[in-house]
Specification:
Helix-turn-helix domain-containing protein, alpha+beta, DUF6456, five-stranded antiparallel β-sheet, Arc Repressor Mutant, subunit A, 47% helix
């Protein structure tokens, strides 16, 4: 069998599919021999054999097994054609301390939850089960606990994929940069790359030993950030969120009557920021959505030092009240 016949066998498979997965499906479902696959791939037959054996062993993973069933027997909806930006959004959430992806057998959705300092859990992302299966095939997530509800954590490959997306491109423009005007060494950020300011504040204690931010306030900030991220998934370019900063939080997105998906998330975000008003909406957008540090936010807003955390707590309190009044306590599933 030549390359043309092999391409016909691989028709319908997403472009992002790893080579090992392609070889496994072509061998087990299409009946291609290991030597045929190795000849077309230009590698030794033992390499293809190891790939197939490894994929067979990975079928103990519920998400991997379900994804291979979709590919081989076309069961249920097809795997997504592309992984970004949805998968990268989920990887950012999974890179947060204490975050896991939970998925139940037979459910069409998976959720990302994160443990708080008080031992409770807050939901930070919702995604389709097909997307979770694709991430497992890419080896970006791995099963840490099996059972009625399986739990997955981000892997080293997943963190590497997230780092590649966040890394600036290296090209000739960077190589031609002058050396004499090198910028000063940046200060060490107050928050890690995977930690939002509200997560750091939630670990702090007030004068009476209570958490500076309650779990309910953290959940309100996470809901705002989730809507902010979901609103980016509709492919619109150049969305100007700065119009919601000080002096521009009034008004929403005219003509956007969507009831689900990115359009609904954009409407929820606009309504929440409009309810917060100038100042409070500004600090909520900067710290919860842009993950801007409190020191930076204080300087840009012209506030005194260490006042930002107080204003942010007031904004989260009003944000929680907004969600309780519009969506009810806890609110519906996002996504």
């Amino acid at each position: 069998m030549g390359k043309h016949e092999l391409c016909a066998v691989a028709a319908g498979m997403p472009d992002w599919l790893p080579t090992a997965v392609r070889h496994y499906v072509q061998h087990t479902e299409a009946g291609l021999t290991i030597r045929q696959l190795a000849r077309v791939a230009g590698c030794h037959a033992s390499t293809v054999m190891r790939q197939i054996r490894r994929m067979e062993a990975r079928r103990d993973d519920p998400l991997v097994d379900a994804a291979l069933r979709r590919l081989s027997r076309r069961e249920g909806a097809a795997l997504p054609e592309r992984l970004d930006p949805e998968a990268l959004r989920v990887l950012r959430r999974l890179s947060e301390p204490g975050a896991v992806l939970a998925v139940a057998d037979g459910m069409q959705k998976a959720v990302v939850v994160r443990e708080t300092g008080a031992g409770t859990q807050v939901r930070t992302a919702v995604l389709d089960a097909a997307m979770a299966q694709a991430m497992a095939l890419k080896d970006w997530i791995a099963c840490r606990k099996t059972g009625r509800v399986a739990q997955y954590a981000i892997t080293g490959a997943g963190r590497a994929a997230l780092a590649r997306q966040a890394a600036p491109p290296v090209g000739m423009a960077e190589a031609a940069a002058p050396f004499e005007d090198a910028p000063a060494r940046p200060r060490t950020p107050r928050y890690g790359p995977a930690e939002a300011p509200i997560q750091a504040l939630a670990r702090r204690r007030d004068g009476q030993g209570r958490p500076f931010l309650s779990d309910a306030l953290v959940a309100a900030g996470e809901r705002l950030r989730e809507d902010f991220e979901l609103a980016q998934l509709d492919g619109r370019q150049g969305q100007d969120w700065s119009r919601f900063l000080t002096g521009g939080v009034a008004g929403g997105w005219p003509g956007d009557g969507a009831v689900s998906g990115p359009g609904a998330a954009r409407a929820r975000l606009a309504a929440a920021l409009a309810d917060l008003g100038p100042g409070l909406g500004d600090v909520a957008l900067r710290c919860c959505c842009y993950l801007e540090g409190l020191e930076t936010a204080e300087k840009r807003m012209g506030w005194s030092a260490r006042s930002g955390k107080i204003v942010l707590r007031i904004a989260l309190q009003r944000l929680r009240r907004h969600y309780d009044e519009t969506l009810g306590p806890g609110g519906p599933l996002i996504g």
